[in-house]
Design a protein that fits this description.
Structural class: alpha+beta
Distance between the termini: 25 Å
Strand order of the largest sheet: 1-2-3-5-4
Order of helices and strands: HEEEHEEH
Helix content: 25-40%
Shape: globular
Length: about 130
């Protein structure tokens, strides 16, 4: 049975359920950063998914990536599977701009800045509509 790692509840906010993935907003107002978390138990790597789920994951990554790129009009789109801190499989989708706080370095090099309440409500509402 799928159970969301508790660390996600502390560092992100629910956006939407897709067929395979639970979609969340990472709590870092420096970047419009979402994560796709497959709703499968004991999965830490893409290779842990069966072939059907791997294909569905790729489809959901593509869908969300296109929406994020269109909406945030980014210079680049970082799509990453890391899992060094939270081992539960999750895919980061991060639109990047040349004027963002760490460009061209990775987003991990700066300390997160939590969303102020009004800004959080606004971006969650926006993301729920576009994804």
């Amino acid at each position: 049975m799928f159970k969301l790692n508790n660390k996600f509840n502390k560092t992100s906010y629910f956006i939407k359920e897709l067929k395979l993935c639970h979609v969340r907003l990472h709590d870092n107002s420096k970047f419009p950063w979402i994560m796709l978390i497959p709703k499968r138990a004991s999965v830490s790597q893409i290779l842990d998914l069966n072939k059907k789920d791997q294909i569905q994951l790729l489809n959901e990554i593509q869908h969300c990536s296109k929406k994020m790129k269109q909406h945030f009009k980014c210079n680049n789109l970082n799509v990453e599977k890391v899992g060094n801190i939270i081992p539960q499989l999750h895919i980061h989708i991060i639109p990047r701009h040349k004027k963002d706080p760490t460009w061209p370095l990775p987003v991990w090099v700066t300390k997160p800045k939590p969303y102020p309440k009004k800004e959080l409500e606004k971006i969650l509402s926006k993301l729920k509509k576009i994804i």
